[in-house]
Structure formats: structure tokens, C-alpha cells
Amino acid sequence: MPDGPVHTEPVHTGPVHTGPVQTGVLATNPTPIGSVPERRGPTGPVAFVTGAGRGIGAAVARQLAATGWRVAAVDVCRDDPALGYPLASSDELLAVVTACGTDAGGVERALAIEADVRDQAALDAAVARTTSHFGRLDAVVAAAGAVAGGDDSWHTPDGIWQAMLEINLSGVWRTARAAVPALLAQPVPRHGRFVALASAGSTVGLARLAAYSAAKHGVLGLVRSLAGELAGTGVTANAVAPGTTDTAMGRASAAVYGLDPEDLAVHHLDRRLLQPDEVAALVCWVCSPASSGVTGALLPVDAGMTAH
Fold first, then answer.
1. CB under 8 Å to 17, separation ≥6 — which residues?
2. pLDDT tens, position by position, for the chain (308 residues)?
3. How far apart are CA 236 and CA 230, in angstroms?
4. In CATH, which superfamily holds the domain spanning 46-307?
5. Residues 2, 201: contact at Cβ < 8 Å?
6. Which residue, of 15, 191, 234, 302, has the greatest Cβ tally within 10 A?
7. Which residue numbers are catalytic?
8. C-alpha span between 143 and 175 (Å, rounded)
């Protein structure tokens, strides 16, 4: 079944917000070209997390912040007519930033940025805003995603097929395209991390969700290729594959089959839905120095869904 909460990114038509950040508001004031980057806020490693407005992405942002990370929390915060469920709002993204807390001086550990993973210019600007604000980048978590389907693969509308590949696969590639150079800009010895949210659907077929499953299979191939390309740089690339998770995206997955989300738990060995924090715990470990020996891997958090 699909990976639950990683939430979707409709097309962002305006420039990504790039200006100084005030407590509790989105970055909205553009920084003049050529200006000196503003570096402020608490110390600690920096993560760039897409799909951070709710679900797994939000849980990752909160857990990283709780362990001393600074976080760029990225989401599109606008609904997409191609999808059958509402997306996270600006208010939800700001609530995540608030939940990430502050340092002893009252400076927020997280920065809210609205950007669409289908918009390369917006992602490039979001990464630039992150490094300008925090001064570095140490980990990237590509958690933005979407689910849609309901038809047999040969009846899948072009719009659904395109949306699933653009959000779930090309969105990961575009995130890497924007952010990997910033990871490699860190001095040697570096300890960079690129983590993509894949799915149990990265290794099994999902009837009536062919476009989604095809995209998630592609994420695994992309991440393993990226790991090979980054060999010897100190930057690793891995994918985390959730089972069905108790989120808006998990509910949308169940709706494809006319089921309640709890009905999908029959595919898990322990017959329960996963919680976003359970998936986030593994993602955060992969971001940590303890995962230095792991790269090019698909790491399941699926309650045993793919074990049988």
C-alpha cells in the first residue's frame, strides 16, 4: 500500500519566499541579488525537508529539531485539482515551525518556505534561502508526495499519470538537483545525507495505483544511482519505504478501494496502521552520523507488509 503522509505539491506559480524571517510568519521579502547572506539562529546541522506541512514530513521536521537540527520546512500549501483530497495549508506549515521550537535566545529552529517540488526554480531558490539563512546544508529529506488512482493502468487518465510521476519521482530528482550541490559544498570531511521517501509500493505492484507504484519504483532506482554517483564524497543517499500510515494520504489511498484506512492494516503483519513518528524515527536515524555505513539502501518501515 502507499506510504501515507508524504503530502503533495501542486504547481507553485510565484517565486519562492526568500527574505528575512519573522517569528511565526512565512518568509516573504525578497533578498536583493548580491546582498550579504543573513546567517542567524541556533547552531547545529541543517536539514531541508519537503512535504513538511503535515504527515511524515512534519514528523521528520519536529524530530530533527528536537535533537538539535535546524530545519527548512518546505511545502506548497495549496490544493491541487488533480488530487482528491486537500493539502496542507500555510497555517499547518507555520504550526510545524512553531512545534520545532526555539533556541535559548528565542530564535526559531525552523524556517517555513512555500515551494512546489515540480518547480525547479522554486526549489533552487528554496535551497538558496536555506543556506543563506542557516549558513550550511547537511541533510535533505525528500518527503513530498501524492497518491491518486482508481482505474486500471490502461484506463489511467493522462493527468493522473503525469501528476504521480511529476510529484513522486521527478520531485525527488528536482530536489536532489537543487540540494545535492549544497551538500557537496560542505568542507571535507563531510557527512551529508540525502533521504527520499519511497513506499512499500516501490517493490510490489499496487492494483489501481499503477502510476503511483511506477513512480515509487523509480524513486528506488534514482536513489541507488545517486548513491553510486556520490561514492567517496561523504554524502550518502538512501530511501525509506513506509507501509500504510495514518495520515491524509493514507486515507486517500484507502478511498481508492472504497475502504476505511484501518482496513488496509490487514496487509501489515501486526494488523495496525503506522504512525508518522514511527517512519520519521528511521528517517532521522538515516540523517544521523550513526548511519554512515548505509548508502544505496531501501529501508522499510512497513509493519512487515513486504515480508510476506
1. 26, 27, 28, 29, 113, 114, 129
2. 444 433 333 333 333 333 333 333 344 333 222 222 334 446 899 999 999 999 999 999 999 999 999 999 999 999 998 898 899 999 999 999 999 999 878 889 999 999 999 999 999 999 999 999 999 999 999 999 999 888 888 999 999 999 999 999 999 999 999 999 999 999 999 999 999 999 887 878 777 788 999 999 999 999 999 999 999 999 999 999 998 887 888 888 878 888 888 878 788 888 898 899 999 999 999 999 999 999 999 999 887 888 87
3. 7
4. NAD(P)-binding Rossmann-like Domain (3.40.50.720)
5. yes
6. 302
7. 212
8. 10
Grid look-up 528511521 returns: 282
In the chain, the largest separation of any two C-alpha atoms, in whole Å, equals: 57
Give the residue extent of every domain in the chain: 46-307
For residue 116, the 8-state DSSP code is -
Task: Pull the grid cell for residue 169.
Answer: 519521482
C-alpha cell at 140: 535533505
**Amino acid at residue number 302:** D
How far, in Å, CA of 111 to CA of 98, rounded?
Answer: 10
The DSSP bridge partners found for residue 142 are: 50, 196
The gap from C-alpha 169 to its chain's centroid, in whole angstroms, comes to 12
**Grid cell in block for residue 86:** 486537500
Q: How far apart are CA 70 and CA 127, in angstroms?
A: 14
Instruction: Give pTM, 2 decimals.
Output: 0.85
